[in-house]
Amino acid sequence: MNKRAVMHPGVKLRHVRAFLDIAAERSLTAVARAQGVTQPALSRTLMELETLLGQQLFLRQGRRLVLTEAGALFRRHAAMAVEALDAGAAALRPEISGVVRVGVLPTAATRLFPRVVLRFRELRPEMVLAVETGPHHHLIRLLREGGIELMVGRLPDVSEIPGLSFEHLYEEDIVLVGRAGHPLAKRPTVEALAGSELILPSATALIRRPVDDYLASLGLVGILPIAETVSLALGRGVCLASDALWFISRGVVAEELERGLMVEFPVGVKFLSGAVGVTRRRGVPAPGVATLEEVAREVARQAALDEEKG
After folding, report:
1. Could you tell me which residue, 36 or 16, shows the higher pLDDT?
2. Which one, 12, 105, 135, 185, has the greatest CB density within 10 A?
3. What percent of the chain has pLDDT over 70?
């Protein structure tokens, strides 16, 4: 049975690649310079694509180009399509393998990212995920220097965003946890805090500032913690062997809470939460990156559905 093609046959790969470059740089001038073409020629290519698709893909905001809703939707699918074509070409040369280098912060490393790894393997078996873990400042530096292609974790500070893009995946709160059977588990949280040793997030961790603000709001300042860490292995070990309480992102200890090894002490405030997502450099993504981003979206959506169900 013949099916009418949805996309106009006049759309060429050059149109799509030009669109993706412009979407990444948000500038005709920068892309024209990088491609060695004139700006009017690049502008004509973009206009041709918009005409063939029957949609406006960009809006002008000063000197920058911003994707319309239609443009953002097309970008997601176009990036995946170009990656698939590149993968097809690579499959003809099996001696060539690809590596996607990604940084993962503790908040995503325990629960979200293992699922991402397995799903990515199903979709791109010819590629290897080289995963770097560590503190936020370390991964941001690697991202800027090109040591990793993207970072999965909390939203960077506003001072770190220039030159980078962030895509929100989900919201995650900071929890206060202790071992199951903690003697102060049924007491008011402020009383438990005052009567227990504390483990605080590392001084360089993004979650440290809101934790300090929360403690200050309770009049608990100048606390000397037993340790500073966002490491599951260390924080979990200290908590389970003592009556220490630990401020940490929920994703790090979600399984310990579900299995009943640890209990949560209610903090009763909303500002102990923040966005978790994907951060990467502006520009055309390396092979495999668009697939990895889509997998992260898929896994985050499924996790949210699972949480609603149960």
Report:
1. 16
2. 105
3. 94
CA distance 196 to 293: 41
Residue partners of 92: CB distance under 8 A and separation at least 6: none
Q: What is the CA radius of gyration of the chain?
A: 23
Query: Residues of CATH 3.40.190.10 domain(s) within the chain?
Result: 96-170+274-309, 172-273
Label residues 256-273 b or e (16+ Cβ within 10 Å = b): beeeeebbebebeeeebb
Q: Which CATH class is domain 172-273?
A: alpha beta
Sign of CA dihedral 136, 138, 143, 149: negative
What is the fold of 1-95? Arc Repressor Mutant, subunit A (1.10.10)
Q: 188 CB contacts (<8 Å, ≥6 apart)?
A: none
C-alpha–C-alpha distance, residues 89 and 72, integer Å: 26
Tell the CATH superfamily of the 96-170+274-309 domain. Answer: Periplasmic binding protein-like II (3.40.190.10)
pTM (two decimals) = 0.68
Best CA proximity match to 143, nearest among 129, 160, 159 = 160
Task: Convert the pLDDT of each residue in 182-226 to its tens digit.
Answer: 999 999 999 999 999 999 999 988 899 999 999 999 999 888 999
Instruction: Give me the percent of the chain exceeding a pLDDT of 90.
Output: 50
Q: State the burial class of residue 233 (Cβ atoms within 10 Å of its Cβ: 0-12, 13-18, 19+).
A: exposed
pLDDT tens digits, residue range 253-293? 999 999 999 999 999 887 788 899 999 888 767 778 888 99
CA angle 153, 157, 162 (to 5 degrees): 100
What is the dihedral sign for C-alpha 160, 161, 163, 167? positive
Mean of pLDDT over the chain: 88
Whether the CB-CB separation of 159 and 147 falls below 8 Å is answered with no
